[in-house]
Structures are given as C-alpha cells and as structure tokens.
Amino acid sequence: MVAQRPIADRERAAAAPDAERSEARRSAVMMDVARLAGVSHQTVSRVLNDHPSVRAQTRDRVLDAMRQLDYRPNSAARTLVTRKSQTLGLVGYETTLVGPASMLYSIEGAARRAGYFVSIASVQSLDTRSVLDAINRLRDQAVEGIIAIVPQESAVEALARVPHDIALVGVGLGEASDVPMVGLDNTGGAKLAVNHLLDLGHERVHHICGPRDWPEANERLAGWREVAGAGTRRAPVALSGDWSARSGYEAGRKLAADRKVTAVFCANDHMALGALRALAEAGRPVPGDVSVVGFDDIPEAPYLIPPLTTVQQDFGGLGRRSLELLMEQVGTGGRTHRNVRLAPHLVVRNSTAPPRSRS
Amino acid sequence: MVAQRPIADRERAAAAPDAERSEARRSAVMMDVARLAGVSHQTVSRVLNDHPSVRAQTRDRVLDAMRQLDYRPNSAARTLVTRKSQTLGLVGYETTLVGPASMLYSIEGAARRAGYFVSIASVQSLDTRSVLDAINRLRDQAVEGIIAIVPQESAVEALARVPHDIALVGVGLGEASDVPMVGLDNTGGAKLAVNHLLDLGHERVHHICGPRDWPEANERLAGWREVAGAGTRRAPVALSGDWSARSGYEAGRKLAADRKVTAVFCANDHMALGALRALAEAGRPVPGDVSVVGFDDIPEAPYLIPPLTTVQQDFGGLGRRSLELLMEQVGTGGRTHRNVRLAPHLVVRNSTAPPRSRS
DNA sequence: ACGCCCGATGTGAGCGTTAACACTGGCCGC
DNA sequence: GCGGCCAGTGTTAACGCTCACATCGGGCGT
Q1: How far is the CA of B49 from the C1' of C30 (A)?
Q2: Alpha helices in chain B (DSSP H)
Q3: What pLDDT score does A359 carry?
Q4: Contact state of A105 with B87 under an 8 Å Cβ cutoff
Q5: Would you tell me which residues 57-76 of chain B have a C-beta closer than 8 angstroms to some C-beta of chain A?
Q6: Cα of B88 to nearest chain A Cα, Å
Q7: What average pLDDT score do residues A283-311 get?
Q8: Distance, Å, A39 CA → C11 C1'
C-alpha cells in the first residue's frame, strides 16, 4: 500500500503526450481564453462582466473559447481585487427544530437568487463567547454580511458587540438591541391563540412556556398573559418548559391532574405534542375535555392525535425577509435600523372545542 | 531606514497625519503589521503560518502588532496563491426532515475542527440537473471537496457525472455508483425492526415504504421483504408512502380496515406517526391490537401516543464519517473508493407488543 | 477636409498573500 | 583562519483578476 502511492502519483504527473507541462493540467485562466479567442484578457473580463462595449461577434468568440476550455473564473482573484466575496454568513444554532432548518434553506435560496453564496457557522451553545467566535470565523472568510439565528438573550448581547461596520441581521431575537431584526409577531400570535380559546368559551387559559432566556418564549408568554389575564380574569401561573416534547409531557401531566383545566396554550408544537400525550394518558380527551393550542405549525401538526390547532409561522418568509434586510445594508453600506415583524396566522384544527361544562 | 513614514504614507493616502482620511480606513494588511513590528511582510507571513525559523522575540513583536491593528489575514489573497480555499461544499435537499438538518450541523462542526469552512448549496428538487447546478455553484467557489446529501436515484446519477478530480462524498445514496458513500445499513435496520415484530409472535408484518426512487426506502423495503417473507411466510404487499405523516395516515387507514393486520413496520417515524393516528381513529389500540415500528428515532418519538418503537439512526455519526471520508480524498488527492455503512440500533418503546390473538 | 468624440480594444498596475531564493552573521570543523 | 553551513531575515516574483487609462479607427459636424 505504502509503496503504491508513488506509482499512483507518478501516473498523475506522467508526461502528457500532447503538450508542454509535466505538472497536472492547470485549469484554464482568463489568459488562456483570451489567447484562444484572439483577444486580450481584458476583453475576456469584459465579456464576463457584461460590459456593454464589446462587439457581439467578439463576445461570441470569447464565450466559445470559454466553453471549449471549460473556463471557470477564479473567485479568489476576483474577490482580492474587488473586495467583494459574494458570500454571506449564516450563524445557526445546532438544533433540529424545524424553524431554523427551513429558514436556512430559504435564506440560501434567496441569497443564490441575489448572486450570493452562503457559508455557515454553527454554534453548539448560545453563550456570548461561542456566538462571537462564530461571527469571527465568518469575518475571516470576508463575508459581506451575516444573518444570525441565535434566539437567546446571551446571543443578543453578543450581536450587540459586533462592530457596526459589518452588515448584520438577527432573526427571532426580540427587540432589545440596536441590531436589525426580523421575527414573528410572537405576542400577537399568542394573543391569537388565547383569544381563540377564550372565544370558544373557556374561562381560564393555561400556558406552557418556553425557556425564559429566549426572547420568543417571553414574547409569547407576555401575549398570553395580557389576554388571559385581561378584565376580571386572572391568568394562571405559567408552567415552564424547554421547547421539548418531554417538557411538554411533564407540564401536561401536572395540568391533567387538575380537573379545572380546560384550555392550554403551548409555546410550541413539540411541547403541545408532549402535553397531548400526557392528557391522553390521564384519560382526558382532547378536545372534549381539554383544548390545546400549539405554536409553529410543524409538518406533523395535522397528524397528531388529535390534529393540532396552532399558530403558524412562515419560516420561509422569515428567511427571505431577513435576507432582504441584510441586502439593504450591504447595498447602502450602513446598518438599517429597522425591525421587521411578520404576522402570524392561526390554523384551527381539531384540538380545540368549547368547554364541556358550559354551552 | 527611510525618513520616517512619509513616502509610504503618501502612496496610501493624502497627508493627514493620523486622522481619518477622506476614504474609509482600510483594514490592516500584512504590510502594515510588518511596518509596525519593524520586520518584513514575509516574516509576518512566517509567524502567521507557524514557520519554525522565527526568533521567539520577533514572533512576539509581530503578534503584538497584529493585535494592535486587529489584523485579519485576507483569505482571498491566500487562496489565490496557495490554491486552497479551506472551504468544503455541502449540497443539501430543502427539507425539514431531521436527518439532513442534524447532519449539516455535525458536518460543519467536524469541518471546523479540521480547519475548513463550509458553504452550502441547496436544491429544491433532486433531479439530475438541479444537483449538477448546485455542484457547479460550489465548484465556482473553489471548494476543495463536496458532500452531497441528495438521497434520490436521479441525484445519484448526477453525482456519477461529476468529474473525478473533485473530491466527493455522497450520503444515504445506496451503492449503485462509484462515488464514495456513507450511509446507514438500512437493510439491516429494517431486519432489526421486522425481526423484533416476528419475535413478539406476529405472523405477518406489513410495511409502509418510502418513495421508490429513494435508495434508502428501497433498502428498507428489501430488508423487510427478506425477513417478512422468509421460510414459509409470504410478505404482504407493501403500501407506499412518501415519508410524510399524511401518507402514513392514509396507508394506516387501509391497514386499520383490515382486522388481520397486527404489525406494521414504517419506513420512517413521520409515516409511523400518521399511521398511529389512523389506527387510533379506527379504534385499533396500539400496541394492544396492532404493533407499530418506525425508523429514524426523531426527537418526538418517545412522546407519541404511544411512545414509538423505532430504528435509530446516528445522524451525527453519519455526518462525521462523511467528513472523514472526504478529508481522506482531499488529503490524498484521489477518490477513496470506499463505502461506509453505520450500524443501526433498535429502540424498543411502547408501540410494540405480542399479538392479542395468540399467547 | 479637419478635428472631435466615441465605440471597441489593449496595456499596465495593482489587490494581499505565499514561495523561492538571496542575503546576512555567527559558529563549526579542520 | 577560512570555507561552509545554518538560523533568521529580506527581496522579488508570481497567483488571476479588475480598474484606470492609453490607443486606434472611423463617423460626424461644420
């Protein structure tokens, strides 16, 4: 095996019969194309960049030469001189939550359409240090802008510390910072959910909330509290979860044990899923006995038992909007101090119904 | 020594001793660091690349200057001259399936540890053309290698057409190609699931399979058929799904209508989730009346109703292994003709039990 | 017909880095 | 004591591209 290596190597480097080089064939560069087309390298460059003043005939000759040589512009050389890498950075949290994943794809798609590449830097935890490290990695690659999907308070701090001369957009991070942000109207979404339950006739709406250091969880909590505790009503104490089905299950068990509970708003679908199971185990039929509303509208939501009423987030739209916001900054060179909030949308399925006791 | 800095300075910008020039301040380059440290730019380069022959004292001076100027090496310039971009490409399918998402993160993490960046190119559909386009986009960025997570037959064809001088690894694409592959032992995993059901005493094990143009679906189908139809047994006809909960639900309804059905193996957890709901609706308790096994072990699996017995895939491991395989190629410059199969693992929960009729 | 301007093209100079080689001294061996 | 070597450093030339400017015909106004 070890003795084989040199041979294989020699094969690669073996003298090419047809021409000069003893090295492996270098891929064609602009000069090669120019030579073949009988023009100067600069004309090739012009063709490449759609410069207007190139005769159609010349352009065709050049294009043809490019095709013949399978020419690929060297992006490093171009970046070196133009100081534009045509690359955007994406900081993502290592999670299998559907939101981040689908935003990633929609961002990449939108970036591609805008002529940009996207490079990723993931972080395992959302502490300030890790996020800053990830951003630095991206900066080392000379990205022209960064979208950060790091929806935790500590990460927001990190973003605030990023030098202002670099384009940056945060997604789902609340508003407590001067970094441009894109996010869902979580408070409004929560109200949608709670009002739906209230409209059905429920007296008290319980809540299983997400981690308190996630701005989105807090916003949903606030929205719930505002409506569930309005007028003469008093909002019950919120149960805390961590977005996981497990935590929803545990909170659900507590809720199931209380016969007075008739309505639950969960801060995300995964927790709702767990709650649904806890309720089923406790012999409390949904929606007959207890109504449940989730948040996110994961693809499985329509197929849970029962199909889940939930607040839909348009992750694709979130991704696209964040890219737009970033491109504005890249275009103007300055930070856009603007926050974008997308409107949520309630999807009513079968996990909600009027309370049994009344009407 | 030249008379102070005037000459060099005048070249860079008009007088202005120290204040802001009309232009934005250019970020420091190697030459600036060299000047400040009183050495040549080459010495700075040596420090940067840990070249041994630099006096410790000199190195410290240089390092200090770098820090003072917040110097960041220009990666484009480095790439231009070394012909190494330190970047890997990832072709991913726009899906929210957990598998791809978690592999993405594990690949990025492993790449980072190996000193590489990762750039992504997503495809909306897995036809040959789209995949080839995505690969070309990556090639335009001069990536040093590509990992493709495009688990569909047509995509496999596309990979086979990629020039052999570019490092490439496919994930979850079966074996029908000469491209190095990493994947789970799907056939073995299916056998694990079916044997588990058989061992419990079930006579016939039904199957809801994934799309037939996905190699992984076929492998699972083959594994099921081999065991479920062994000996005197005859395997039932497989119902076809498309990985979605919806398709699982529909197949589940058909199965639920047949009282003789006692055991179902679903090609993934999402379809199992749908099947679970269909069974529940039809009043066929799981596992009392029907046993169900899934595949993947999604995070929600333990919280379904009932908790799902399933075949676990180690997505993180898959990602890491594919990176290793790619790095081997990048290291040696040749394709590694080697396929890696990871062993699956059965996780028994509460969706499986012996059939009611016997024992 | 003359100068002018403009469309079409070529020339030269960088962009910031690494590679290859040249140049210092000081220390070694004999 | 002198050639040689080696650690430590500087000098110069790429790398492949774009930008600014130079060049060169020819149509056009007067």
Answers
A1: 39
A2: 6-12, 30-37, 41-48, 56-69, 75-82, 98-113, 128-140, 153-160, 186-199, 215-228, 245-257, 269-281, 315-332
A3: 43
A4: no
A5: 72-76
A6: 10
A7: 94
A8: 13
CA distances in angstroms from A40 to A140, A208, A313, A350, B80, listed in the order given: 34, 68, 54, 70, 21
The pLDDT of residue B176 is 64
Does residue A139 surpass a pLDDT of 70? yes
- Judged against a pLDDT cut of 50, whether residue A19 lies above it is answered with no
Q: Nearest CA to CA, how far is B176 from chain A (Å)?
A: 25
CA trace torsion A278, A279, A281, A283 (10° rounding): 160
Question: Helices A30-37 and A41-48 sit at what angle, rounded to 10 degrees?
Answer: 110
pLDDT tops 80 at residue A346: yes
The secondary structure of residue B352, as a DSSP letter, is: -
Contact check, Cβ <8 Å, A303/B277: yes
Q: What residues contact A208, with CB distance under 8 A and at least 6 apart? A: A238, A239, A240, A241, A247, A248, A251, A252, A255, A264, A265, A266, A267, A271, A272, A275
- Would you call B165 helix, strand, or coil by DSSP? coil
Mean pLDDT score across all residues of chain A: 88
A108-119, pLDDT tens digit by residue? 999 999 999 999
Dump pLDDT digits (tens) for B17-68.
333 343 456 789 999 999 999 999 999 999 999 998 889 999 999 999 999 9
Give the pLDDT band of residue A12 (cuts 50, 70, 90). very low
pLDDT exceeds 50 at position A14? no
Low-confidence ranges of chain B (pLDDT < 50): 1-23, 358-359
Strand D contact with B41 (CB < 7 A):
yes
b (16+ CB within 10 A) / e for B144-168: bbbbbbbbbbebbebbeebeeebbb
Distance C24 C1' – A80 CA (angstroms): 34
Mean pLDDT of A9-38: 61
pLDDT at B357: 61
In whole angstroms, give the CA distance from residue A294 to residue A303. Answer: 13
Residues 180-219 of B with CB under 8 A from A: none
The pLDDT-based confidence of A357 (bands split at 50, 70, 90) is low
Between positions 86 and 115 of A, the ones with CB within 8 A of B are 87, 92, 94-96, 98, 100-102, 104-105, 108-109, 112
CB contact under 8 A, B304 and A277: yes
Residue nearest to nucleotide C9 (CA to C1'): A43
Among B80, B132, B95, B90, smallest CA distance to B111 is for B90
Query: Which residues on A lie below 8 Å from B74 (Cβ)?
Result: 80, 142
Cα angle A255-A95-B217, degrees, rounded to a multiple of 5: 100
The three-state secondary structure class of B192 is: helix
Provide the whole-model pTM. 0.88
Min Cα separation A75/chain B (Å): 6
Cα–Cα–Cα angle for A340, A344, A348, nearest 5°? 175
Asked if A241 contacts A215 with a C-beta cutoff of 8 angstroms, the reply is: no
